[in-house]
Design goal:
Methane Monooxygenase Hydroxylase, Chain G, domain 1, mainly alpha, 6 helices
């Protein structure tokens, strides 16, 4: 019986590793789409990168379904099962956010004013760094659990900086003389971008709680 449970737990860990690898492919294509096309929304590679983002986001959903199926099959003890399921559900909000942001730019044909590009790229870069650190945290949780609190601290600092950038961007948008409808489009886009670091920070805190519970 215990041998069977350990085997299923190892399978779940392997699936989470695969999920995180796929998560990073979603993130990489999202990042490329922003960096290559933020100054030219209709650039040749934008449509392709959106398709790639969607492809890997769908693959991540499929892997998450496998993980949940094993969870419901009682592959872990009840407390651990709830912790891991809640943690992975929280992680899974982020690829959806990446895809949503790209679709917002694409469908609304948003063109970023030049005076916002540098701040928006900084917001995106720091948000994505939060995601990189969050992935390291989850990997640490699957291993020896070392460095989780230190990573949480860095993510928290980055998330605070992202909040500052978000407020600065919104102020600059509404202080400008651009079209009022574009202001509302850009406001929604900036808020969605700010959500990335918020979501990563929420996952980070969950990882830390799970880690602490294991030590009790």
């Amino acid at each position: 019986m215990f041998k069977f449970l350990f085997k299923k737990e190892a399978t779940i860990k392997a699936l989470i590793h695969t999920y995180l690898e796929t998560f990073q492919l979603v993130q990489d294509n999202f990042s490329r789409a922003l960096n290559e096309c933020v100054e030219e929304p209709q650039c040749d590679s934008f449509e392709f990168l959106i398709q790639q983002t969607h492809k890997y986001e769908s693959k991540a959903d499929d892997i998450m379904a496998e993980i949940n199926a094993l969870m419901y099959g009682k592959a872990l003890i009840p407390d651990s099962r709830g912790d891991i399921r809640g943690l992975m559900d929280a992680v899974d909000h982020i690829p959806h956010k990446f895809e949503s942001i790209l679709y917002t730019i694409q469908t609304q044909k948003i063109e970023i004013p030049k005076f916002l590009i540098r701040d928006l790229q900084e917001l995106a870069n720091i948000s994505l760094e939060c995601c990189d650190l969050m992935v390291k945290q989850v990997m640490a949780l699957l291993g020896k659990g070392e460095g989780i609190r230190a990573l949480m601290s860095v993510i928290d600092t980055h998330e605070s900086h992202c909040d500052h950038l978000e407020r600065r961007l919104l102020t600059r948008i509404f202080d400008s003389d651009i079209d009022s409808f574009l202001k509302l489009q850009l406001k929604d886009l900036v808020i969605q971008m700010g959500d990335i670091s918020d979501l990563a920070d929420q996952v980070s805190r969950r990882v830390n709680i799970v880690s602490m519970k294991r030590r009790v």
